[in-house]
């Protein structure tokens, strides 16, 4: 079950905090993981650890804006809604979740195991104030859609400023 709660951003003063999850090093790591896994499928990704611990799941996100709302669409295949958490922070929306590892079944010999498991966390900065009471989130066929209605003040047109001349 998803939960929507207002809470403080964990690191509001962090330099380049708006880049969380999309910083150049994270993008480079994801590209390197894709490159290596395409040539050597058995090679674990750079963020994976031994001992059966989980790693960060890659997630793809679309962000769009209308006159009335900000819309987020996130691919979360194989993740139940009870394993997803959505929080509204002072600087944006924090989306996190996990996909549990399927334990090896007795009597099965696995020849290949490529399906990823682990956790993900995405912070999406918002360009304007939203109406927290009317945020809507739905999960359908592995796609999480979040609609964040803009607040009344954010929906008002920009005020024109007259320029005076000397």
Structure notes:
The chain has 166 residues and is mainly β. It has one domain (4-107, 114-152): Immunoglobulin-like, CATH 2.60.40. The protein has helices at 24-39, 152-155; strands at 4-6, 55-56, 61-65, 69-75, 84-88, 92-99, 118-125, 136-140, 143-149. The protein has a 5-stranded mixed β-sheet with strand order 1-5-6-7-2, with no helix packed on it. A 4-stranded antiparallel β-sheet has the order 3-4-9-8, with no helix packed on it. A hairpin with a 3-residue loop joins β5 and β6. Residues 9-20 and 41-54 have low confidence and may be disordered.
Total beta strand runs: 9
Give the neighbour order of strands across the main sheet. 1-5-6-7-2
- Major sheet: 5 strands, mixed
Give the mean pLDDT. Answer: 76
What is the helical fraction, as a range of percent?
A: 10-25%
The ordered string of helix (H) and strand (E) elements is: EHEEEEEEEEH
By CATH, the topology is Immunoglobulin-like
Low-confidence stretches: 9-20, 41-54
What is the distance, rounded to the nearest whole angstrom, between the alpha carbons of the first and last residues?
A: 61 Å
Give the DSSP E fraction (strand runs of 2 or more residues): 25-35%
Structural class by SSE content: mainly beta
Radius of gyration, in angstroms, nearest whole number:
20 Å
Could you name the CATH class? Mainly Beta
């Amino acid at each position: 079950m998803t939960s929507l709660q207002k809470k403080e951003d964990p690191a509001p003063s962090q330099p380049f905090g708006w880049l969380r999850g999309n910083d150049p090093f994270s993008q480079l790591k994801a590209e390197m993981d894709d490159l290596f896994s395409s040539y050597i499928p058995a090679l674990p990704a750079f963020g994976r650890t031994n001992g059966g611990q989980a790693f960060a799941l890659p997630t793809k996100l679309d962000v769009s804006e209308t006159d009335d709302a900000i819309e987020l669409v996130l691919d979360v295949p194989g993740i139940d809604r009870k394993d997803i958490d959505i929080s509204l922070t002072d600087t944006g929306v924090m989306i996190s979740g996990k996909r549990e590892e399927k334990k090896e079944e007795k009597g099965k010999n696995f020849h290949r195991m490529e399906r990823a498991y682990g956790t993900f966390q995405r912070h999406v900065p918002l360009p304007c104030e939203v109406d927290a009471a009317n945020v809507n989130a739905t999960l359908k066929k592995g796609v999480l859609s979040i609609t964040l209605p803009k607040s009344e003040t954010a929906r008002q047109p920009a005020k024109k400023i007259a320029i005076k001349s000397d």
